[in-house]
UniProtKB/TrEMBL annotation:
<dbReference type="InterPro" id="IPR017799">
    <property type="entry name" value="Tscrpt_reg_PadR_acidobac-type"/>
</dbReference>
<dbReference type="InterPro" id="IPR052509">
    <property type="entry name" value="Metal_resp_DNA-bind_regulator"/>
</dbReference>
<dbReference type="Pfam" id="PF03551">
    <property type="entry name" value="PadR"/>
</dbReference>
<dbReference type="InterPro" id="IPR036388">
    <property type="entry name" value="WH-like_DNA-bd_sf"/>
</dbReference>
<feature type="domain" description="Transcription regulator PadR N-terminal">
    <location>
        <begin position="17"/>
        <end position="90"/>
    </location>
</feature>
<protein>
    <submittedName>
        <fullName>PadR family transcriptional regulator</fullName>
    </submittedName>
</protein>
<dbReference type="InterPro" id="IPR005149">
    <property type="entry name" value="Tscrpt_reg_PadR_N"/>
</dbReference>
<dbReference type="InterPro" id="IPR036390">
    <property type="entry name" value="WH_DNA-bd_sf"/>
</dbReference>
C-alpha cells in the first residue's frame, strides 16, 4: 500500500498547477512533470485532467497562455500566472495550510 501512487485529493489539482507556474511559464507536459518531480514522484497528473484544468484556470483569468516551441521543437502552449492567479494561489495556500493543520490535529500528528 505504501508503494502505491497517491491520488490527488479533490480540489488540489488547481493549486498544484498554480504553484508549478509560480516559478515561471511552462507548457502542459512540463507542469505535469513539475508536480511529479516536486512531489518526490508521489503525484502524477494525467493529461485527461491536466488540460481541462489548465483551460478552466485560463478561463477564470488566473492563467495566460502563448504559443511557443517546446524543448523538443514542438508547437505548444506555455502558461503563466496572471496577477489574479498569484493572489488566488496565495489565498489557496493559506487555506490548505489551515486544512492540513486541522487534519493533523485530528490524527494526532505533530
Amino acid at each position: 500500500m505504501a508503494d502505491e501512487p497517491l491520488e490527488l485529493l479533490q480540489g488540489t489539482l488547481d493549486m498544484l498547477i498554480l504553484k508549478s507556474l509560480s516559478w515561471g511559464p511552462l507548457h502542459g507536459a512540463a507542469v505535469a512533470e513539475s508536480v511529479h518531480t516536486r512531489s518526490g514522484q508521489e503525484l502524477t497528473v494525467e493529461e485527461g485532467v491536466l488540460y481541462p484544468a489548465l483551460h478552466r484556470l485560463e478561463k477564470r483569468g488566473w492563467l495566460e497562455s502563448v504559443w511557443g516551441l517546446s524543448e523538443k521543437n514542438r508547437r505548444v502552449k506555455f502558461y503563466r500566472l496572471t496577477p489574479e492567479g498569484h493572489e488566488h494561489l496565495k489565498a489557496e495556500t493559506q487555506t490548505w495550510r489551515r486544512y492540513v493543520s486541522a487534519v493533523s490535529r485530528v490524527l494526532g500528528v505533530p
